[in-house]
């Protein structure tokens, strides 16, 4: 059993590398690609912003339905793996299409973009929900879940780090090799899709799901889906808290490349900042299991939030002629962010047992359908903020930072740092006052489920 557990930690974790590369490329750099590489017009940018926001909201609304479909799946390969495979193949193909220069403009470009972006979102959701909803089935032990979650987040951050640190130098190198920066971005997209497919194969063939631990349940109807979500109060509170945090975090990171080009004045330093980001986040996750031995999760969340707040304040007032204070702010923000994001994943995982205990049914996939729902809503709001800010601040028409007015710079700083910080603080307060599944309560829930014969261990 221990051998299977160890094997699952790494084969599940490796599957996150390419997935998070793809998601990072689309969520953080698609807008930059459209504005600075393809150089679409201001009117097209307004429409693209609206399309992205609407498509993500539409796709997010469909997430619980996909979760219900996964919960009702019963094949010899299990209920998760067929959907993981399908979603990986389709999302990879449509990721490449998003970076393809079709030569279209105006309404033709907008129609093509809408179709491809919408299908990309749906196909990534198929993979995302089935992939992460596998996690609660691998163990019901909180410490074991922390290990699996930590390893998964570390591998995911390796993927994020590769994209964030490599986007500028690798696309430049590929662009020189293939004749244009647009082709460099396309080649980069192909590269990370191949990595995603390889990682997903490791998960598909490597993860061994425990058999006979959970009783087979009746199929979930749409009414049952709504019941599983809205009657699970702890799921709703953690979802709201998580949505606020992800909105703030995604907004800040989406502005990163714009900040270094138009405020700091050296886009090449973005890769240096990315190194700080990657090392900080991975270090945070590596020490998390050690810290969790001595501190309760609520204490860790409070400490991580304090680091994030201090980091945002330093970043806002940091001078732009040196990386020293920006680097310090980045370390504080991303150490705290990594811990919070892992905690959010663990909180969400624990609500599966809470829902099972309170409502009599696990609904793993319906519960985890809220994770991509949250990410998409957060990403939709972040994309909207970025798109509007790029236009109102003057970035869309500026060739360099010197072309921006003081008002434009202030708009950028406010959107990148103040609004996100307010979202993150609001998310923490909701968690602090409303989320009640601590370590002791979780143990009582699992013990009661065992006593009721609903978990066989």
Overall helicity: over 70%
- What is the makeup of the main sheet? none
Q: What is the overall shape?
A: globular
- Can you tell me the CATH superfamily? MFS general substrate transporter like domains
Structural class: mainly alpha
Query: What is the terminal separation in angstroms?
Result: 12 Å
Number of helices: 18
Computed CA radius of gyration, to the nearest angstrom:
22 Å
Give the overall average pLDDT: 87
Uncertain parts: none
Q: Number of DSSP strands? A: 0
As for the number of domains, it is 1
User: Which CATH-level-2 architecture?
Assistant: Up-down Bundle
Give the topology string: H per helix, E per strand: HHHHHHHHHHHHHHHHHH
Q: Briefly, what CATH class?
A: Mainly Alpha
The portion of residues forming beta strands comes to under 5%
Short description:
By secondary structure, the protein is mainly alpha-helical.
What does this structure look like?
This protein is mainly alpha-helical and 457 residues long. It has one domain (13-205, 222-438): Growth Hormone, Chain: A. The protein contains 18 helices and no strands. Helix 4 (81-98) packs antiparallel against helix 5. The termini are close together. The mean pLDDT is 87.
Keywords:
mainly alpha; Growth Hormone, Chain: A; 81% helix; 457 residues
Topology summary:
Elements: H1 2-14, H2 16-37, H3 42-71, H4 81-98, H5 106-132, H6 135-138, H7 142-178, H8 181-206, H9 222-230, H10 233-254, H11 256-262, H12 269-294, H13 297-317, H14 324-359, H15 364-368, H16 370-392, H17 406-434, H18 439-451
Helix pairs in contact: 1-7, 1-8, 2-4, 2-7, 2-8, 3-5, 3-16, 4-5, 4-8, 7-8, 7-12, 7-14, 10-14, 10-16, 10-17, 12-14, 13-14, 13-17, 14-18, 16-17
């Amino acid at each position: 059993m221990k051998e299977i557990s160890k094997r699952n930690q790494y084969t599940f974790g490796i599957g996150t590398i390419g997935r998070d590369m793809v998601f990072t490329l689309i969520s953080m750099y698609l807008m930059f690609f459209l504005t600075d590489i393809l150089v679409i017009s201001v009117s097209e940018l307004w429409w693209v912003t609206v399309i992205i926001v609407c498509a993500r909201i539409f796709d997010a609304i469909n997430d619980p339905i996909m979760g219900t479909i996964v919960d009702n799946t019963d094949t010899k390969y299990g209920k998760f793996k067929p959907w993981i495979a399908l979603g990986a193949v389709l999302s990879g193909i449509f990721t490449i299409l998003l970076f393809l220069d079709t030569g279209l403009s105006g309404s033709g470009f907008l129609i093509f973009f809408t179709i491809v972006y919408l299908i990309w979102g749906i196909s990534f959701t198929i993979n995302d929900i089935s992939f992460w909803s596998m996690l609660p089935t691998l163990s019901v032990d909180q410490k074991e879940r922390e290990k699996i979650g930590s390893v998964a987040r570390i591998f995911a951050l390796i993927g994020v780090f590769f994209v964030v640190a490599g986007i500028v130098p690798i696309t430049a190198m590929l662009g020189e090799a293939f004749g244009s920066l647009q082709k460099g971005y396309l080649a980069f997209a192909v590269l990370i899709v191949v990595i995603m497919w390889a990682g997903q194969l490791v998960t598909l063939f490597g993860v061994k799901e425990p058999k006979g631990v959970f009783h087979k349940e009746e199929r979930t109807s749409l009414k049952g889906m709504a019941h599983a979500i809205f009657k699970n109060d702890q799921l709703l509170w953690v979802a709201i808290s998580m949505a606020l945090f992800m909105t703030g975090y995604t907004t800040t990171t989406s502005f990163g490349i714009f900040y270094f080009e138009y405020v700091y004045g050296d886009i090449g330093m973005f890769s240096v900042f990315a190194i700080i980001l990657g090392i900080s986040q991975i270090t945070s996750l590596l020490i998390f299991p050690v810290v969790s031995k001595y501190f309760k999760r609520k204490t860790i969340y409070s400490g991580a939030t304090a680091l994030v707040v201090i980091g945002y304040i330093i970043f806002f007032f940091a001078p732009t002629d040196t990386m020293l204070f920006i680097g310090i702010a980045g370390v504080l923000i991303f150490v705290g962010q990594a811990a919070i994001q892992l905690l959010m994943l663990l909180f969400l995982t624990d609500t599966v047992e809470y829902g099972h205990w309170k409502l009599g049914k696990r609904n793993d996939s319906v519960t985890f359908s809220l994770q991509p729902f949250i990410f998409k809503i957060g990403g939709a709001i972040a994309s909207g903020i970025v798109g509007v800010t790029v236009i109102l601040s003057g970035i869309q028409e500026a060739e360099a930072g010197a072309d921006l007015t003081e008002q434009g710079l202030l708009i950028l700083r406010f959107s990148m740092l103040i609004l996100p910080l307010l979202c993150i603080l609001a998310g923490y307060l909701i968690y602090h006052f409303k989320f009640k599944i601590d370590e002791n309560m979780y143990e009582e829930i699992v013990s009661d489920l065992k006593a009721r014969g609903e978990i066989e261990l």
